[in-house]
Amino acid sequence: MPAYEFPGGIYPPERKARSNQSPLQAAPLPSQVTLPLKQHAGNPATPCVVVGENVNVGSLIAQRNGMISAHLHASISGTVTHVDDTAITIEADGLDRWETLPPLDWRTAAPAALLERLESSGLAGLGGAGFPTHIKAKVAEHNVIDTLVINAAECEPYITADDLTLRHYAADVLEGAQLIARLCGAQTIVIGIEDNKPEAISALTQALSQMQHPATIALKVIETRYPSGGERQLIKKVLNRDVPSGGLPADVGTLCHNPGTLLAAFHAVRDGKPLVERIVTLTGDAISRPGNVWVRLGTPVASLLKGAGLDPHQLHQVIVGGPMMGTPLTTLDTPVTKTTNCLIAATLAELPPAPVESPCIRCGACELVCPAQLLPQQLHWYARAESDSTLETLNLFDCIECGACSFVCPSFIPLVEDYRSAKQRIRLKQIESAKAEHAKHRFEFRQARIAREDAEKKARRQARLAHTQKSAPSSAGDDAAPEADLRSLRIAQTAAKAAVKKAEKVLARAAEQAPKQRFEDLETQLATAQENLKAAEARLAEARANATQKDSTI
Ligand code: SF4
Ligand code: SF4
Fold first, then answer.
1. Is the shortest distance between the CB of 413 and ligand 1 below 6 Å?
2. Of the residues 125, 145, 474, 548, which has the maximum number of CB atoms within 10 A of its CB?
């Protein structure tokens, strides 16, 4: 397969050798975990345990709330000691008792059972955005997907979690990919991996040679260049497909998953293991034992880094993720979540603060490296001028915040910070203007709920009447509901089903495009469509019961 090019890109110092030389290990079991209710795109989960309750590893402790959300499970066995609107805390009993689901075979299990398993296991993308996996797996309902891309590029400096995942679990990752390919209908799987991971490439080559696979799997080794792990960039690189501005990979028949997510999906199906742990890279010059470890979710960053030999006197800052796109931590009490792929405990010399910025000299360096073909210097001017309509015209929201432009800027302008705050400001404005619309939608939801309750009440009454009529035919004739047009009701039901599907699609697409946002209004619109569907079904049931009753009286 030929290699294609995405524009721009840079070659930052790698520093992966610091963590990819040690064997993969399990971090010690934490004595306490704090599990945030929002570790994924969409709505936070809703707690379903109370303080004092005993739980096992894998016990469901919070249920998904709305369509874009994910279940949350206990990551240690012990006692729930705190529950609030944001997190659940569990004290360990040290027994590490597990609670798993029955094993499934992805080749023979029904797709509905596999989807249900992904959902009940609380799976969310482990690559960064945390999009619920069961929603992504349903993409075939709205798009034709021909290719699943395994995003093994791992282009950020320092991070080696995917590399170690592939070295140790190449065959399982490929099984996970086939499972997802089966669900989304992809006939081809392409693994995109940078050439700086020779051991992972060799593990994949060996696993491929031994694999019985229904989908065609191709291994595509690409040059090491940042940010080839961006979805659009990788899809261009390995498939020569251009994801349109404002679009998604599904628009060009493609789905992307990172190796950790595929491994978790396979383990959830084969072993019935919910998502309670993940592989995290521990690195940076302020720790003496860098490497990759299996970590239970909710483990405090402080104890994890201490176990890796943290020298607090050397520590300048801890970054979650890579140095290009990661975020600095304000406190080490922060827990590891489903999206924590790397912790860099950096010294001051290692990641010094950026020098003071100076004015833009219009050198154009930022434009040359932008992988999204944007005009970074213009975005910078208009962001600072708060010229939001121009920013949207310049496709600000196509910016993947890769930081390549900031990296090369000789004036040390924090370009990505400008873009992030501009995006935030624009989103807040959109939320403000959507509030009035939301009030209207909430009113519509209330009306739909009342209509549904009314329809269900009538349907129950009619069913009772039909039942009574069977045993005492002469008494019910006057109370029978007016004859309904069954055909129109069936059409109404079909239309209501279509409305639900459409609302689901709009919500899933919005959440995938901006996973860090909340989508209360779209969730309300979906809930309204669902209420309307239930009402349509109740009316149909009532009409059928009415027809049955009528037949029996003739
Ligand atoms: S941060 Fe945005 S504007 Fe800058 S190079 Fe990356 S995609 Fe382009
Ligand atoms: S790289 Fe910096 S100085 Fe050069 S054009 Fe871009 S913003 Fe201006």
1. no
2. 125
Distance between CA atoms of residues 473 and 315, nearest Å: 85
List helix spans (H) across 373-414.
Answer: 376-384, 388-393, 404-408
φ/ψ of residue 408, rounded to 5: -95, -5
pLDDT in tens, 104-125: 999 999 999 999 999 999 999 9
| Beta carbon of 426 within 6 Å of any ligand 1 atom | no
Does residue 372 have its Cβ closer than 6 Å to ligand 1? yes
Distances (CA, A) of 464 to 178, 243, 471, 533: 49, 55, 11, 22
Q: For residue range 314-366, what is the model confidence (pLDDT) as tens digits?
A: 999 999 999 999 999 999 999 999 999 999 999 999 999 989 999 999 999 99
* Residue 302 burial by Cβ neighbours in a 10 Å radius (0-12, 13-18, 19+): middle
Residue ID of nearest Cα to ligand 1 atom 5: 370
Ligand 2 pocket test: pick from 362, 399, 406, 419 the residue with the most ligand atoms within 8 Å of its Cβ: 362
Residue ranges in the chain modelled with pLDDT below 50: 1-2, 475-481
Ligand 2 in reach of 361 Cβ (< 6 A):
yes
Residue 107 corresponds to which tokens in the numbers above? 């080749």
- Closest ligand to the CA of 380: 2
Please tell me the distance from the alpha carbon of residue 34 to that of residue 410, in angstroms, as a whole number: 42
Length of the chain counted residue by residue = 554
Residue type, 367: E
What share of the chain in percent tops pLDDT 90?
70
Ligand 1 center to 385 CA (angstroms): 18
CA of 364 to the centre of ligand 2 (A): 6
Nearest one of 251, 249, 254, 229 to 127, comparing CA atoms: 229
Q: 241-282 pLDDT, tens per residue?
A: 999 988 889 999 999 999 999 999 999 999 999 999 999 999
